């Protein structure tokens, strides 16, 4: 079966089913998009990869538009997530960044006041202009039913990469700074709160209809630190965005936050709580307000594996959240080895009610 055989996203009369859901209304069947839906599992993505390195792809509007649109063309996803990266922010402030094949991101680590002083927060709006341009082209070109999603990393997760100098299993250097030089770590977080809020606000002005905060690593923290470095900075960003763009919903993704996700949902003011794979959707649903949209949470491994087990699990998640606003998604990004036809099967299963 080709992707062209699929029915249009809405069986409801709602213009943008995803946006409507994020605003707290139930849509049935639920809208669907996937984290990292643009990526190396798609042959058309790999073809573009040969043309430019990752940062160039992010910062060249024509390329970023094409990469954002590829999964929409193929699967008619309800949401189009901007093709970019959470590490663009420290990079535009002046921190060196390279994506090394087989290793991931490599940054010149920030370990002292002097390192931090080298960053220039006043460059963010100007330097992210190509990203804003990408969004304004997308806002014009995407189908009317598709919701355009902007995003950023949460201050804690971006700080992890900035201090560590790259990916890590435990971000030990970062957490050491957090404990040994809390004022310096807090300064990094505060810088990221201000610049993330400004950058997301610019994304919205350029055409993003919702924004998502990716907090991939907050789950490393004990409750007190989670409150201080995850919940409070997120609350400040949401407060800023609410004041500037009252009707634009914010999605928060406190990955591996465990039971702290409930407090996160309550205190940050996000409209939607994105769930990781380990969270039981019906359990968390009973612990958060009924108007709060939930997003998630299929295991990317089940998507990669495919077949009847995929259909069964996708249907189970969809049906278990019926009766409240729910955006179907994964609990983390699409894995590189995922067969593209499995994504088609997933979208079809979720829409086929
Ligand atoms: O979801 C989407 O399709 C939109 C684009 C997007 C990317 N990264 C593109 C990307 C988004 C939303 C991100 C978020 C991101 N980036 C996170 C948070 C979510 C998560 O996965 O936990 C994090 C931690 C990063 C940092 C990052 N970027 C890492 C660790 C890597 C290396 C891993 C890898 O796959 O090589 C990246 C690179 C990256 N970001 C790629 C893409 C498509 C792969 C680059 C390539 O194609 O060469």
Automatic annotation (TrEMBL):
Q: Name the keywords, alphabetized.
A: Cytoplasm, Decarboxylase, Lyase, Porphyrin biosynthesis
Per the record, what are the reactions this protein catalyses? Answer: uroporphyrinogen III + 4 H(+) = coproporphyrinogen III + 4 CO2
Pfam families per record: URO-D
Q: Where does substrate bind?
A: 36-40, 85, 161, 216, 332
Q: What is its main location?
A: cytoplasm
Name the CDD domains on file. Answer: URO-D
Gene Ontology terms, cellular component aspect? Answer: cytosol
Q: Which pathway, per its entry?
A: Porphyrin-containing compound metabolism; protoporphyrin-IX biosynthesis; coproporphyrinogen-III from 5-aminolevulinate: step 4/4
Marked site (Transition state stabilizer) residue numbers: 85
Set out the biological process GO terms recorded for this chain's protein.
protoporphyrinogen IX biosynthetic process from glutamate
What is its subcellular localisation?
Cytoplasm
The entry lists its GO molecular-function terms as: uroporphyrinogen decarboxylase activity
Q: Which NCBIfam families match?
A: hemE
Instruction: State the protein's purpose.
Output: Catalyzes the decarboxylation of four acetate groups of uroporphyrinogen-III to yield coproporphyrinogen-III.
* Protein family membership: Belongs to the uroporphyrinogen decarboxylase family.
Subunit info here reads:
Homodimer.
HAMAP family documented for this protein: URO_D
Q: What is this protein called?
A: Uroporphyrinogen decarboxylase
């Amino acid at each position: 079966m080709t992707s062209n055989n699929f029915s249009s996203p809405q069986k409801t009369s709602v213009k943008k089913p995803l946006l409507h859901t994020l605003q707290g209304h139930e849509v049935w069947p639920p809208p669907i998009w996937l984290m990292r839906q643009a990526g190396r599992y798609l042959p058309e993505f790999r073809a573009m990869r040969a043309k430019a390195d990752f940062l160039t792809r992010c910062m060249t509007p024509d390329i970023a538009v094409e990469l954002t649109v590829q999964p929409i063309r193929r699967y008619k996803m309800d949401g189009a997530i901007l093709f970019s990266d959470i590490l663009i922010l420290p990079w535009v402030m002046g921190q060196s960044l390279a994506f090394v094949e087989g290793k991931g991101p490599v940054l010149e680590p920030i370990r002292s006041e002097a390192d931090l002083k080298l960053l220039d927060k006043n460059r963010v709006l100007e330097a992210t202009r190509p990203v804003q341009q990408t969004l304004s082209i997308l806002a014009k070109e995407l189908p009317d039913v598709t919701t355009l999603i902007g995003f950023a990393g949460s201050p804690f997760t971006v700080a992890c990469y900035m201090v560590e100098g790259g990916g890590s299993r435990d971000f030990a250097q970062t957490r050491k700074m957090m404990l040994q030089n809390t004022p310096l770590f807090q300064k990094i977080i505060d810088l990221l709160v201000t610049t993330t809020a400004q950058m997301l606000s610019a994304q919205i002005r350029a055409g993003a209809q919702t924004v998502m905060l990716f907090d991939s690593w907050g789950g490393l923290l004990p409750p007190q630190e989670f409150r201080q470095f995850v919940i409070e900075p997120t609350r400040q960003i949401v407060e800023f965005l609410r004041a500037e763009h009252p009707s634009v919903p914010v999605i928060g993704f406190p990955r591996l936050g465990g039971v702290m996700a409930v407090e996160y949902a309550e205190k940050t003011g996000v409209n939607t709580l994105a769930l990781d794979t380990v969270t039981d959707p019906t359990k968390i649903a009973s612990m958060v307000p009924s108007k709060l949209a939930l997003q998630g949470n299929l295991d990317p491994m089940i998507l990669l594996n495919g077949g009847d087990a995929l259909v069964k699990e996708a249907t189970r998640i969809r049906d278990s959240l019926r009766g409240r606003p729910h955006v179907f998604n994964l609990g983390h990004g699409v894995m590189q080895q995922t067969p593209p036809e499995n994504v088609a099967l997933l979208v079809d299963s979720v829409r086929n009610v």
